[in-house]
Amino acid sequence: MLDWSLLDGVRTLDADRLDFATPEPARRALDATVIAPLAHLGILEVEGSDAARFLQGQTSAQLDLADGDFAPLTCFCSAKGRMLANGQLLRRSAHRYWLILSRDLVTPLAEHLGKFAPFYQTTLTPRDDIALLGLIGQEAPALAEARLDIAPPATWHQVVHDEALVLRHPGPRPRLLIAVPEAALVATWQAFTAQALPVGNAIWRLHDIQAGLAWIRAEQADAYLPQMINWEALGGISFKKGCYTGQEVVARAHFRGQVKKRLVRAQLEGDRPPAPGAAVVDAAGKSVGDVLSSELDAYGQPEVLAVLSTKEELGPLTVEGQVLKRLKLPYALERLDPETLADPG
């Protein structure tokens, strides 16, 4: 486990939440560059001479696309097509891949994949020695280039220099995910906080919500088809690759249009962020969906990602007594092939 207490001024709220004394962090992130320790994310390393073939049979990503430049979104499903985990796949060397996903799913996914890995001479290793940092702001790309000597990549691409790896994620402000060895954590943090404000990882999670990106956690595993969190609209499913576990169900749901629930972005009229799993209810008190994630925005109101029924007109909705107002997603609800994203030019 990483020792985040090495960072000056850090406060531990729980195992997945860190914070700092920076006032109004969500508001400051609107016009300043901020940096956050991404304690809620982790890395599972997959390594071996046959690692690519092993992953090709398990993940929704086309392994040929993970080429050390493009780092596609992906997911792992049960035989019934339900997601066991979702994340980002990147190649670190010829036979070594990293999966970035919710920290509390690293061990469960390793245990699940571990049932098949020995047949492919592949090892699975949680990389607890790698620190993930999130840099947000209009000046984030220039600051990363100055501090790491790295020209930031395009969205969902990666770039490496010495021991540092940088990924670009979408959002309302430029966002860079930076991975460095734990031994370099303090020096890297100090270099960035000379110009960037330290904030808790709730701010990164808020920007994920605003980008319409849902990263499932352990309690949400095996509950949703990938399309229920709009994964095909984000380029997280390759419909051009061969078979993988759950592929038939996922493909059938896509080609027959049988997705009964969809991810929506919304704001609550209140000041109480609901916990994941909180019910979204209609005027009659019937549950029509549930909350995946929620954080307070710059105005002190909860923004949420929720999975709602697509069956009927739902009418007025509430979460824990707070009125739910739908917000526009920043992408179209249509298939986006990762093969298209792989070439940003």
Give a description of the structure.
This protein is α+β, with helices and mostly antiparallel strands and 345 residues long. It has two domains: 1-213, Gyrase A, domain 2, CATH 3.30.1360; 260-326, Elongation Factor Tu (Ef-tu), domain 3. Helix content is 18%, strand content 32%. The protein is built from eight helices and 19 strands. The strands form four sheets. Strands 10-11-12-9-3-13 form a six-stranded mixed beta sheet, sandwiched between helices. Strands 14-17-16-15-18-19 form a six-stranded antiparallel β-barrel. The chain is globular, with a radius of gyration of 19 Å. The two termini are 39 Å apart. The mean pLDDT is 96.
Give the total of beta strands. Answer: 19
Biggest sheet overview: 6 strands, mixed
Enumerate how many helices there are, as a single number: 8
Radius of gyration: 19 Å
**Spatial ordering of strands, largest sheet:** 10-11-12-9-3-13
CATH architecture of the largest domain: 2-Layer Sandwich
The helix/strand class is alpha+beta
Low-confidence runs (pLDDT<50, min 5 residues)?
none
Subunit arrangement of the protein: single chain
How far is the first residue's CA from the last residue's CA?
A: 39 Å
Task: Briefly note the CATH topology name of the largest domain.
Answer: Gyrase A, domain 2
**SS strand fraction:** 25-35%
Task: Give the overall shape.
Answer: globular
Mean pLDDT: 96
Overall helicity: 10-25%
CATH class type of the largest domain: Alpha Beta
N to C succession of SSEs: EEHEEHEEEHEEHEEEHEHHEEEEEEH
- Total domain modules: 2
